[in-house]
């Protein structure tokens, strides 16, 4: 019965996602362009996330360990093992940001408009040259005052129980642009919504618990400090992930 309810809820989430794609296609296509594209995209994504999480029965419980300076931009690094991580980020970070997302998203209808219009940045993992180009694009967005969101694990497998070792890109970007790292821990999103291709896991409503940590300054760092910055960020997120509550 538990698996049947989980699968039924999984289908329900898929259904409302398709409906939202249909409903939001025209506003995204018409409004995410021109000089107001960032502002319009932020508003649309917030509304989409708010409505989807409400209909999915997901309530957000966010703890900020320090006050977020909305006048400062960040490179936001979070653990990633659920598509809820993406959805909820728009409700957590109240400022304009660009996602660095896997290039496969360009195949997703409606969502790919954000990448094609320069709101978000596709990451091509199969080419070092194109991967480097995405970091150049990210630097340009940082210069515009936007934040960047990166999942430094680079992906996940449902069988994994531990975080993957972080890749270097986010930390190279932080040091090169003097943009601080903001670690974010999603404590239990995987228990609420699994990979959309896996029909065997749990899908259910509930409370998504999130911790936004104090930012890590990088103004006195150089490339020699990259590994230490990467490991420090990993430990901050992992410690919270393993803690109770």
Keywords:
globular; single chain; 245 residues; seven-stranded mixed β-sheet; Glycerol-3-phosphate (1)-acyltransferase; alpha/beta; 15% strand
Please give a structural write-up.
The chain has about 240 residues and is α/β, with parallel strands linked by helices. The chain has one domain (about 1-240): Glycerol-3-phosphate (1)-acyltransferase, CATH 3.40.1130. About 45% of the residues lie in helices and about 15% in strands. It has a seven-stranded mixed sheet, with helices on both faces. The radius of gyration is 18 Å and the shape is globular.
What's this model, at a glance?
This protein is an alpha/beta fold and about 240 residues long. It has helices at about 1-30, 35-55, 85-90, 110-115, 130-145, 170-175, 190, 225-240; strands spanning about 60-65, 75-80, 95-100, 120-125, 145-150, 180-185, 205-210. It has 8 helices and 7 strands.
Order of helices and strands: HHEEHEHEHEHEHEH
Beta-strand percentage?
A: 15-25%
What would the CATH topology be? Glycerol-3-phosphate (1)-acyltransferase
- The strand count comes to 7
Mean pLDDT: 91
Order of strands across the main sheet: 1-7-6-2-5-3-4
Outline the fold blueprint:
Elements: H1 2-31, H2 37-55, E1 58-64, E2 75-78, H3 84-92, E3 97-102, H4 112-116, E4 121-123, H5 128-143, E5 147-150, H6 169-177, E6 181-186, H7 189-192, E7 206-212, H8 226-242
Parallel strand pairs: 1-7, 2-5, 2-6, 3-4, 3-5
Antiparallel strand pairs: 6-7
Helix pairs in contact: 1-2, 2-3, 5-6, 6-8
């Amino acid at each position: 019965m538990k698996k049947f309810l989980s699968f039924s809820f999984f289908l329900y989430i898929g259904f409302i996602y398709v409906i939202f794609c249909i409903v939001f296609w025209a506003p995204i296509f018409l409004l995410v362009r021109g000089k107001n594209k960032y502002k319009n995209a932020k508003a649309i994504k917030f509304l989409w996330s708010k409505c989807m999480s409400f209909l999915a029965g997901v309530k957000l419980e966010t703890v900020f360990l320090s006050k977020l300076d909305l006048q400062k931009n960040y490179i936001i690094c979070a653990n990633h093992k659920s598509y809820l991580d993406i959805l909820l980020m728009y409700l957590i970070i109240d400022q304009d940001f660009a996602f660095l997302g896997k290039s496969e998203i360009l195949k997703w209808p409606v969502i790919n408009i954000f990448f094609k219009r320069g709101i978000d940045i596709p990451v091509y993992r199969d080419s070092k040259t194109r991967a480097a180009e995405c970091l150049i694009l990210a630097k340009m967005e940082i210069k515009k005052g936007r934040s960047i969101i990166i999942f430094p694990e680079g992906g996940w497998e449902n069988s994994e129980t531990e975080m993957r070792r972080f890749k270097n890109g986010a930390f190279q970007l932080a040091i090169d642009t003097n943009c601080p790292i903001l670690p974010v821990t999603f404590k239990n999103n995987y228990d609420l919504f699994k990979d959309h291709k896996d029909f065997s896991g749990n899908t259910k409503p509930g409370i998504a618990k999130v911790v936004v940590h104090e930012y890590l300054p990088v103004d006195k760092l150089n490339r020699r400090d990259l590994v230490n910055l990467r490991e420090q960020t990993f430990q901050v997120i992992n410690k919270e992930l393993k803690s109770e509550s």
